[in-house]
Amino acid sequence: LAKTTQPISMDSYEGQEVNITCSHNNIATNDYITWYQQFPSQGPRFIIQGYKTKVTNEVASLFIPADRKSSTLSLPRVSLSDTAVYYCLVGELASGYSTLTFGKGTMLLVSP
Amino acid sequence: DTGVSQNPRHKITKRGQNVTFRCDPISEHNRLYWYRQTLGQGPEFLTYFQNEAQLEKSRLLSDRFSAERPKGSFSTLEIQRTEQGDSAMYLCASSQGTAYGYTFGSGTRLTVV
Question: Residue B107: which of A43, A93, A104 has the nearest Cβ?
Fold first, then answer.
């Protein structure tokens, strides 16, 4: 599985847009990019997944450049409740895709 | 269906004792995963079931760990002769085939004293 690199922590204020970038230089052709969010004492929660270009849902947007060697999770107008750890994962979404490998994630702290 | 359910939420045990955790996945999900998470780290993969078959086990899963998923429904994770290093959050997740994302439970926090 491709290794990912993310910032250890980020700080923001309520109402701002937050962009968390993940590097995955060794991403394979069949790999998808998935982001999870985790609050203390809870399991990770799926946020968004994409393969290329841009994906948007009600929670976030995911931007993936043409070379797919990085991706950016964009959280619009964050609130205090967005304070959490965000994980970027890369894996093959196919019959052989069985497990997710988490790194240490990015701790996002949103302040008033 | 309210999601993935794990019991107990917390478990404190003495070193050397055996413990068993239970996970009830989302009913239509055929895949079930166990992860372990220690403070400040991301979840680490332990093992994975597709229906009742255990298809993959991590090297982290020592001989003291065993997992079952009888009839492809709920799963149990047993740790024998617990050690202080087993203290962690044990997370269960389920998915339907290769569908988008896993659904995680809230975990069982194990403290070995």
Answer: A43
